[in-house]
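I'm stuck. Please check this protein.
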Amino acid sequence: MIGLSARFAEKSEMRARGPIYAKAAKDSFKADLEHVCIENIQSCVIIANICLADSDSKAESLYYALAIRMALILDLASTNDVEDGVTRETARRVWWTCFLVDVWSSGGSGISRQLIMTDHRPRMPVEELMFSKLRPKDEDITDAEWRPGMWSHMVAMVEVYKEIQDLIRYLAVIPEWDEEFIETTVDRLAIRLQAFEERFEPELQFSAENLAINADRGLGRLYSGFHLGYQYYCMLLFYRYLDQNRPPTVNGNAYADRCKLHARKFCEILKLSRENKQAEALHNIIAHITIVSSAVLLHTYIFGDASELPDTITRLESNMEALVELRVYWPSVELMVGAVDLLICIDLMAHQIDRLVVFLKNCVRSSTRDTHRFDKWMVKFLQEYGKTLDEKDKFEVSTSIFLEEVYDSGLGQRSRTIQGVMSAYWNVGGFAA
């Protein structure tokens, strides 16, 4: 825990000791590797997060795999009648944590998931305050007493996210799309996501007031992360409808608008969370989602009405400020941002900030209709945050022709404005060919 949390310390000498603590944690775990227990599962998850923060996606995936295998060996999905309520609920939450990281990590690394979901699964996590009130030797919470909380809703949403992942992977590998199948699948998943939001208890729905209430309860960061995750799943589901090269569909325009709506909502939630120290969304993965949100905002800025431009620029600047803050804690953020290019996405750097920069450069260098083309490269950009973005294939037509098209279409000034915003926060000069 110290190895992961030292980066948040106010004193520089404590922050500097983070890697020392992290190495000690790894050494201690390796010495006890063959001891299969809940504590070692928890250790694996924490160490995996340290590896992710250090941009070591291979080690991250390995530690998550160990955690999942141990959870299966211990059969945490089954209830042990001799254990007290705290132990049982902890086991359930550890099992569902393994489920969550399996879905997220496999998507981020572009590899297969380990857990095969069956009917043999534990009860969903109980509401957070009910869990916090449990004491050793207390009886387990009965099914009649049980009520859902953020964790249980989060698990249910990730089950939908898993299907969104599968759909996107399918679209990336098949040569010809079955538009009817895709539309039917998106419709079904969209209804499920909307139903989740409508079922949120009043105190769980997002508002500045609820954010403050949860922050006072010590649940502010969980609350922020919960809602930011929901916006990401929606953006991911509808992102393909930003591709202006795809044939029109019945709900295509509506879904593109929903994608942009969720990008704006994400920005609003992130901004509000940053204004409350007890609700700041400081998770490493927030950087990746912020970059996806920024890519959607870029679509609005490039193709939207002139009346939308000031608000869009303000939101982009807010996202950039958040990434700058996250970079202080997580070295991998530098890798993420490098992937977003201006008028589409071409030069790709190895990190997250590099991902954003690359996306932006590709936007500048491609035809205006190609900025958000939904292809294998875009799938990697949207999901596989643990991988380095390779440079996108050069287009057959010269870059100069593309740039001429961009400027002839009246988007040259918008391109320069976006470049200025990025340059204000990152060293990303040289968007020209």
Q: What stands out?
A: The longest strand covers residues 337-338.
